[in-house]
Amino acid sequence: PVAMVSAMSPGLDLDASPVGGVLTPMKRGRSGSPRESKRRAIHNEVERRRRDKINFWMNRLKDIVPNPPMGGGTNTSKGHVLGKAVTHITELKEEIASLRKRSDAEHSQLLQCASQHTLLRQQILDSGMKPTFGLFKISTPTSGSTATVPVSAPPSEPKLPEGM
């Protein structure tokens, strides 16, 4: 049996001496050249900063996502935090869609009321009646509550002080 060694394996010396007719890889030691040590140190520092940044944002996410795990453990897994975040974001998207739908329906009702108001106002003016203005009590049939609503007169010519 011949040992198969991939040329892509890191840290393997493919120019190894044959032992018993089979090439055996020889691992390189950790004490490489100063250049190699510096490269490894830089890589380790970059990797440490990357992990620190991920951990920072995971902790921020854990703090803002509702429904911490039962038992109050402080060492929540990253997978659990990400799962809760996805669930929370999905719920927020659904709530936004529901609120938009409700807002659109209320906006449509408002436009209908404004249109009816304009039509009724024109009918009153066309009939020759003079609209009255003041305070009116409005009650809502569903809740039974009442409100006093001021109704102001349409813009008119400014009144000049007497004697002018």
In words, what does this structure look like?
It is a single chain. This protein is an alpha+beta fold. It is built from 2 helices and 6 strands. The chain has helices at 34-64, 78-127, and strands spanning 12-13, 18-19, 22-23, 26-27, 134-139, 146-151. A two-stranded antiparallel ribbon has the order 1-4. A two-stranded antiparallel ribbon has the order 2-3. Strands 5-6 form a two-stranded antiparallel ribbon. Mean pLDDT is 75; it is low at 1-9.
Main β-sheet: number of strands, strand sense, barrel status? 2 strands, antiparallel
How much of the residues is beta strand, in percent? 5-15%
Lateral arrangement of strands in the main beta sheet: 1-4
Uncertain spans = 1-9
Shape: rod-shaped
Distance between the termini: 120 Å
Q: Which range best describes the helical content: under 10%, 10-25%, 25-40%, 40-55%, 55-70% or over 70%?
A: 40-55%
Order of helices and strands: EEEEHHEE
What is the fold's blueprint, element by element?
Layout: E1 12-13, E2 18-19, E3 22-23, E4 26-27, H1 34-64, H2 78-127, E5 134-139, E6 146-151
Antiparallel strand pairs: 1-4, 2-3, 5-6
Give a short summary of the structure:
This protein has 164 residues and is α+β, with helices and mostly antiparallel strands. The chain has helices at 34-64, 78-127, and strands at residues 12-13, 18-19, 22-23, 26-27, 134-139, 146-151. The chain is 49% helix and 12% strand.
Task: List its traits.
49% helix; disordered N terminus; alpha+beta; two-stranded antiparallel ribbon; single chain; 164 residues
